[in-house]
Write a structure and sequence with these properties.
Distance between the termini of chain B: 64 Å
Helix content of chain C: 25-40%
Low-confidence stretches of chain B: none
Mean pLDDT of chain B: 97
Strand order of the largest sheet of chain C: 4-5-10-6-7
Largest interface: A-B, 49 and 57 residues
Helix content of chain B: 25-40%
Number of domains of chain C: 3
Oligomer: heterotrimer
Largest sheet of chain B: 7 strands, mixed
Number of strands of chain B: 31
Chains: A alpha+beta, B alpha+beta, C alpha+beta
Low-confidence stretches of chain C: 291-297
Largest sheet of chain C: 5 strands, antiparallel
Structural class of chain B: alpha+beta
Radius of gyration of chain C: 19 Å
Chain lengths: 174, 763, 297
């Protein structure tokens, strides 16, 4: 008989408690138990990046992460970055740059882009490519990803200027 | 153009991008229903074996398992397209490693998976055939007992007097080329949910490119009427031709659902996507080209032997395209093609972006460079000299109502010459070169008398917003957005007031689906015609409401006004409100079925069968490390005649995506089979390009204003992949002086070609 | 899956106690990027998983005297991005940055890369070239073994993760006058296992190479050291192209890559070994010069 184990973690800013199988993957808990289907299953072997979520701010393949690893930590899924209902500037940038076609890889890519832009305010082309190199996209040929991240960086810059010092504004390590 | 149009011809953000970027777009695997079960399929590990017995008893008694089925539980119907040759679950024998043998429905994916391991199948391995040439040899094992010689299809297509023409040529060249097995590899694994409604009808949810074909094929496989089936299409996570046709899992899910009385979901694993999906038809191509000393191409002869795999699906249609289309790229006087499609114990092959056309382009566009170089001519000049032009009727009877081939060649060749890196570096270890290749393709495809059109329904709502229904799927290419732009343009309403509905065969008007690069051209035209009809209805209504002759009324930005007295106006929303839910009883709905003005082909495949023909040319620059054989594609200049770019942003996206897939095909994608068993069934071993591997891409949009397509538009989806492999091959020859004739161009192949003296490289 | 508990010990002692309690039915998990796939494929069927990444002492990255200590919980990303490692042990930083993807590197541990025992594992190849050692804890006590002695075959480590823990890797930092480099050839620029990878560490004095260690993967059942080539390099002038080519040729001949349908023929891959060893030696030698001029990379 399967034994459930209690997983406590912060999901998209909210404290969540859920009973999971001890070796269940994070993606399955998020999708099947918590019913957030924005995180996609593309290969279930860590090879495509579609299931990417942020674990304590860092992108990971949620298909390879046992859900229990999130215990006491913070997970952000695509649903968590536009919780207010308004598009995040990165999401807006992906739309405007034409970086979204079929959309299946998109949630993961957006989260990797967010992780990068949280650390680096104006990333170089090389930094963008390295950060997004764990995402396979079959539609776009990727070139619009680079445009989208650059556009997002500009949008975030303006956003921070307007808001007069958002928490993320001054955290460049460039 | 910008002044003429308000909604088309402008960069439009995809109208469904917000759902996708927020994770709210629902793909098949995101759907679930009360009581839903999970299905899994047991597949043959053998490429060819007799099934001596199947014991399902252990699996059936596992907790959570609700049904285990074999062929005995399924209708004994063989289904398929030209060659109906497949049962949904294998009867008596399996024909490839991946063939469906049994299926399970259980309360969880894990239980279903475990049940598969408890099904005991006794196989007797049979001699198998892995090479089309060997499969045709008399006495070779037969994949299907009723297909002598393992022949799935033969074409012999002759135009003009080839023998006479070859005799009159200054130069005749012969070469052989080979293309590889590759998978479409869309990111969203293909899947289905099947549910039988209380009224006896079957509902199928599946992210498929051709919902109406799916309905017909599923009905055929189950032995029921098409109208007993509904196909509903959620968001599709990419298709590229791999999701045009149903797979065995569609009717299998239906049988499991009937047996259990519950909805059943089957989603392929990534491994199944590799071992049991539909690869691009691989072909060996012998090509003979007759030319005059001045570079005139006179005649062409081809012999094709193509790998059908174990079941036929669309491969015969693909072979036909492979056999013909490139003859319409240049002004050939004559051609003869003999092509054979041969059953083997390999994964079945079918359509993938280019649909057969890409394979022959690789051969011909490589050949043009080979011949031009041998004759001391500039390959670009040779192409320009022979390029078909607007107004031509091609060798196979295509009427070119618009053709920008020459302009595409000029622009791509010029762009790739600009800003070149040095031809040599690091003491000659790094060599660079450029190459050009052209393409032609279709925007629709009428076989014989068949319908090749599309239907659209548009309906105003009482708040002035417009619903657009089409039978054509959006698999991510942006069809919804193009339809919305066309409707908005035709009606003079804002793009944001147009809602494009999902495809549902019970509701959507009849359409063939998203393939043949036809959606914008024929689907868009149907939307345009329906929108125009509704516009007439709306103006008639407004005329009545405003007490004005409808011919004096115009619509702009959602406002209806008197052209001669613009102060007299009402909004579209006001008109709709006053027309719907009132005694006006205004219809404000149009349903148009459109079929383009093409004749189709005769019994010899001659004729004008596509609404429009697409042309393009790519220039590429490559860099070869002669010490390792590694190639990097540095730049691609991709020029495409799209007639008119309804959404230039979407066109650019098609170009970059097609270049990525074409480059991957040329350099690294390859299904490696060893005695019929796939050696690389994962995304770590089947190599797709990553963001770090991409060249820089310069998209060049050429507009030729096609007289038939909506606003002059033609298709662009498939064309963007087609010229990439030959352009890369040509660039590699330019860089290092060796000619690669077999895809993919692996580093080892290049290394050995560049260093032929190093037979034993490592010694 | 029949895993019945997921444990998160806070100390090494607690982890060992838990391993002991389940008598071989518990298995350690660090990043889990390999293990989760193996569990799915039923390569292992443990009843209990013990996650050691929450153990504070395993989270340490320290430079102690002449040594660099990498705790068992440190990820490839943490090692690849560490400024000290990048300047003092670039071969290790480069190798760690080559593994998989950012998502993998953010969770997969360097120790895990060693214990998974894949001959192509980038970080492990670099560690073998560096002559790194490991500390192994079990209920019987503590022992140390060089990384290269942990291999029992392809994908098989002598470490039994149901009984013992590799708690740390210790790298003796190459001193002044040394240089190192990592290179790989892979079918694409990211998300790819190497066709061949090579790590080189050289020590020099007075313009001569005093010692060289070379590790190559995947050309044997473990990261392979061409000892003939290493010996040949001792006493060779730094940056002697002829000598480097000669050593590279020796390394190629000493390697035994297999014919692989996916990675290429043995001949070709042996040729790549030669190319990469030579290039890595040249790169490492160049870095020696850079150090001399006081401009560490």
């Amino acid at each position: 008989m399967k034994t459930g184990q209690v997983l406590n973690f912060t999901l998209n800013g909210e404290q969540v408690e859920v009973l999971v199988d001890p070796a269940e993957t994070l993606v399955n808990v998020i999708r099947k138990k918590l019913l957030l289907t924005g995180t996609k299953r593309g290969c279930e072997e860590g090879e495509c990046g579609a299931c990417t979520v942020l674990l304590d701010g860092k992108p990971v393949n949620s298909c390879l992460v046992p859900a229990m690893k999130a215990h006491g930590k913070a997970v952000v899924t695509i649903e968590g970055i536009s919780a207010s209902g308004e598009l995040h500037p990165i999401q807006q940038a992906f739309i405007e740059a034409g970086a979204v076609q079929c959309g299946f890889c998109t949630p993961g890519v957006v989260l990797s882009a967010k992780s990068l832009l949280d650390r680096v305010t104006l990333p170089s082309e090389e930094e963008i490519k390295t950060e997004l190199s764990g995402h396979l996209c079959r539609c776009t040929g990727y070139v619009q990803f680079v445009d989208a991240v650059r556009l997002a960086a500009r949008k975030l810059g303006r956003f921070h200027d307007r808001s007069g010092g958002d928490g993320g504004a001054g955290r460049s390590v460039v | 153009m910008q002044t003429k149009h308000s909604a088309v011809g402008r960069d439009a953000d995809f109208i469904d991008a917000a759902e996708k970027v927020t994770g709210r777009a629902r793909y098949l695997d995101d759907l679930s229903f009360p009581g839903m079960l999970h299905g899994k399929i047991l597949r043959s590990p053998y490429p060819h074996a007799r099934i001596k017995g199947i014991d399902i008893s252990r699996a059936a008694s596992l907790a959570g398992v609700k049904a285990v089925i074999t062929s005995a539980d399924c209708p004994g119907i063989r289904f398929g397209l030209d060659n109906p040759d497949v049962y949904m679950l294998a009867v008596d024998k399996v024909r490839y490693a991946g063939d469906e043998v049994a299926a399970v429905a259980a309360v969880s994916e894990e239980a279903a998976e475990e049940a598969l391991s408890l099904i005991d199948v006794e196989y007797e391995p049979l001699p198998a055939v892995y090479h089309p040439a060997e499969a045709m040899v008399p006495g070779a094992p037969l994949v299907h007992e009723d297909k002598p010689g393992n022949i799935a299809k033969i074409y012999e297509i002759v135009r003009g007097n080839v023998d006479e023409d070859f005799a009159s040529c200054d130069c005749v060249f012969e070469e052989e080329f080979g293309t590889s097995l590759v998978q479409p590899c869309y990111l969203e694994p293909f899947g289905v949910i099947a549910d039988w409604e209380p009224n006896g009808r079957l509902t199928i949810w599946t992210g498929i490119q051709s919902a109406f074909h799916a309905r017909a094929e599923i009905a055929k496989a189950l032995g029921i009427d098409p109208s007993s089936v509904t196909v509903k299409v959620p968001y599709i996570g990419g298709g590229f031709g791999g999701k045009i046709w149903i797979r065995n899992f569609h009717p299998i899910a239906a049988v499991l659902a009937r047996k259990t009385g519950r909805p059943v979901k089957i989603v392929l694993s990534r491994e199944e996507e590799f071992i049991a999906s539909r690869a691009r038809v691989a072909a060996g191509i012998k090509l003979k080209l007759g030319m005059m000393r001045d570079g005139t191409m006179v005649c062409k002869e081809a012999e094709i032997i193509a790998d059908n795999g174990a079941y036929s699906w669309a491969a015969p249609k693909i072979l036909l395209n492979m056999s013909m289309r490139t003859d319409c790229l240049y002004r050939f006087r004559s051609s003869r093609t003999v092509s054979r499609l041969v059953y083997t114990n390999h994964v079945p092959t079918s359509g993938f972006r280019g649909y057969g056309n890409a394979q022959m382009h690789f051969a011909l566009e490589s050949m043009v460079d080979i011949c031009a170089r041998k004759m001391g001519l500039d390959p670009v000049e040779v192409r320009l000299k022979n390029a078909v032009r607007s107004g031509d009727t091609t060798l196979h009877g295509w009427k070119l109502r618009s053709c920008g081939l020459s302009e595409c060649i000029d622009k791509a060749a010029a762009a790739i010459k600009e800003g070149r890196l040095p031809g040599e570096e690091a003491g000659g270890r790094i060599r660079r070169g450029v190459g050009v290749a052209c393409m032609t393709h279709v925007s629709g495809n009428r076989g014989g008398d068949n319908f090749d059109g599309s239907s659209a329904m548009v309906r105003f709502q009482e708040d002035g917003r417009l619903l657009v229904y089409s039978g054509e799927s959006d698999m991510g290419q942006g069809a919804r957005t193009v339809f919305a732009q066309i409707a908005a343009e035709a009606l003079g309403i804002p793009l944001s007031d147009v809602i494009v509905m999902p495809v549902d065969t019970d509701v959507s008007p009849f359409g063939y689906g998203s393939y043949s690069s036809r959606v914008t051209t024929v689907g868009g035209k149907a939307v345009l015609l329906a929108a125009r009809q509704v516009r007439d209805q709306l103006l008639k209504l407004a005329g009545k409401l405003m007490n004005e002759s409808p011919d004096r009324l115009e619509i702009r930005d959602g406002v209806i006004f008197d052209r001669l007295d613009p102060g007299r106006r009402m909004t579209v929303a006001e008109a709709c409100r006053a027309g719907i839910r009132t005694r006006q009883a205004a219809e404000l709905t149009a349903y148009v079925t459109y079929d383009p003005p093409t004749e189709g082909t005769d019994s010899d495949y001659y004729g004008d069968y596509s609404s429009a023909y697409n042309y393009g040319a790519h220039g590429v620059e490559v860099e070869v490390d002669t010490e390792t054989g590694q190639v990097r594609v540095l730049r691609v200049a991709a020029a495409h005649d799209v007639g008119f770019a309804i959404n230039p942003k979407g066109v650019r996206g098609q170009i970059s995506g097609g270049v990525a897939q074409g480059t991957g095909w040329a350099l690294c994608e390859n299904l490696v089979l060893k005695e019929g068993v796939l050696q690389n069934p994962s995304l770590s071993s089947y190599i797709l390009m990553t963001i770090k591997d991409m060249p820089s891409i310069k998209p060049i949009i050429v507009e030729t204003d096609d007289p038939v397509g909506p606003y002059g538009a033609k298709g662009v989806g498939e064309p963007t992949l087609i010229p990439v492999p030959p352009a890369i091959a040509n660039a590699i020859e330019d860089a290092v002086g060796v000619r690669l004739r077999d895809l993919p161009f692996t580093p080892e192949k290049i290394f050995r070609a560049v260093n032929p003296q190093l037979k034993e490289a490592g010694k | 899956m029949n895993v019945q508990a997921y444990l998160t010990p806070r100390t090494a002692e607690e982890a060992l106690e838990q391993l002991g309690r389940y008598g071989g039915e518990a298995r350690l998990i660090a990043g889990g990027t390999d293990l989760m796939i193996w569990l799915k494929r039923k390569k292992y069927t443990p009843r209990v998983l013990i996650d050691i990444t929450g153990i504070d002492q395993f989270r340490r990255l320290e430079f102690t005297g002449e040594s660099l200590v990498i705790g068992a919980a440190l990820t490839h990303a943490e090692v690849a991005l560490d400024g000290g490692i990048r300047s003092l042990v670039p071969v290790l930083a480069e190798a760690c940055a080559s593994v998989g993807s950012p998502q993998i590197r953010n969770i997969a541990t360097v120790v895990g890369n060693v214990v998974s025992a894949q001959p192509a594992a980038d970080a492990a190849v670099a560690l073998v070239a560096l002559g790194a050692g490991t500390e192994i804890l079990s209920r019987d006590g503590r022992r140390t073994l060089p990384v290269e002695e942990l291999y029992a075959g392809v994908g098989r480590s002598i470490i039994d993760s149901t009984r013992e823990i590799v708690s740390r890797i210790v790298v003796k930092a190459p001193g002044p006058g040394s240089g190192s480099a990592f290179m790989r050839i892979a079918p694409r620029q990211a998300l790819a296992l190497p066709v061949i990878n090579v790590a080189v560490v050289i020590s020099t004095a007075g313009g001569l190479i005093t010692g060289a260690r070379i590790a190559i993967g995947p050309v044997a059942d473990r990261p392979f050291r061409p000892e003939g080539a290493e010996k040949f390099l001792a006493g060779v002038p730094v940056g002697d192209p002829g000598a480097f080519a000669e050593a590279a040729g020796m390394a190629g001949r000493e390697s035994s890559p297999r014919d692989s349908l996916l990675r290429g023929s043995a001949d070709y891959r042996r040729h790549l070994v030669k190319v990469l060893v030579r290039r890595a030696l040249e790169e490492a030698a160049g870095r020696v010069d850079a150090c001399k001029e006081g401009m560490p990379q």
